[in-house]
Amino acid sequence: MTAAESAEPCGNAPRFGSRPLSCGGTAGHVWTSWGRSFGELDLSTCPALVVVAPHPDDETLGFGATMALLAERGIGVQVVSVSDGGAAQGDLTPFDRFRLERTRSTELRKAARVLGVVEPISLALPDGELAGHQDSLADLLTGILEACSPGTWCATTWRGDGHPDHEAVGRAAATAVHRTAAVLLEYPVWMWHWARPGDSAVPWHRALTVPLTTSAVGRKQAAAQCFRSQFHPPAPGVGPVLPPFVLPRLLAVGEMVFR
CA-to-CA distance for 20 and 92, rounded, in angstroms? Predict the structure, then answer.
């Protein structure tokens, strides 16, 4: 299977692009009051976990509580951060971009320690350009997963999440899983922003919720605070990269995977 062949029927970048963060998106209470029930992911069957994230912070925002819970249970958890994160704050000078990349890498390592997982692997591919590196990324992830025990879970951003980098990483990970003995799980991050309950663009038939503990959710919330570059204004008069409503919404909806 090539990276192109691992794609969902269609991506949701137009849906995501039509709902900028400034509009607020779908509120958390809309999701929590939906009332639809889903099956639960059986964490007892996880032998080891590799979490692939497009940018430093996606692993925490989308799957951090699950990572913390499995780590508490003695399961090995490895984070693979794909991009350097340097495009998060728009046009920067080369020096400022380099400084942001270093900052985000440091934030990721701090968050990993809070979650109780090992030192992340950073591939440092160019933020915002991951679709152009999809095939080489699939090869890199294949090598990482081949070194893991059979049945290792590979959790990555959903191939339909809307953000182009998220979708490209999801496709590359799906290709790598197809080549190895790993098991694919896809977690949404931006779906909660642009979609609505019952949205036909979402594969709800593949959805499983993760049974989380209060301790694991607390670790996720604390780990998210490590990403100051994303949640705090970079300069006076400039809004943060991630508006204040993003984290509360993700904490409210919990964690879900498509399997």
Answer: 21
Contacts of 235 (CB under 8 A, 6+ apart): none
- Going by C-beta distance under 8 Å and a sequence separation of 6 or more, which residues neighbour residue 57? 85, 104, 107, 108, 111, 224, 227, 230
Alpha helices by DSSP H, listed for the chain, are: 13-17, 28-32, 58-72, 94-115, 134-146, 164-179, 191-194, 214-224, 228-231, 246-253
Contact of 190 with 200, CB cutoff 8 Å: no
For strands 153-157 and 121-125, give the pairing: unpaired
Residue 163: which residues within 8 A CB-CB, separation 6 or more? 13, 16, 54, 157, 189, 190
Mean pLDDT of 214-227: 98
pTM over 0.85: yes
Cβ-in-10-Å burial (0-12, 13-18, 19+) of 206 comes to middle
CA distance 55 to 124: 9
∠ CA 5-7-12, rounded to 5° = 155
Residues 137-181 have pLDDT tens digits of 999 999 999 999 999 999 999 999 999 999 999 999 999 999 999
The one-letter amino acid code at 67 reads M
Residue 30 to residue 159: CA distance in whole angstroms: 23
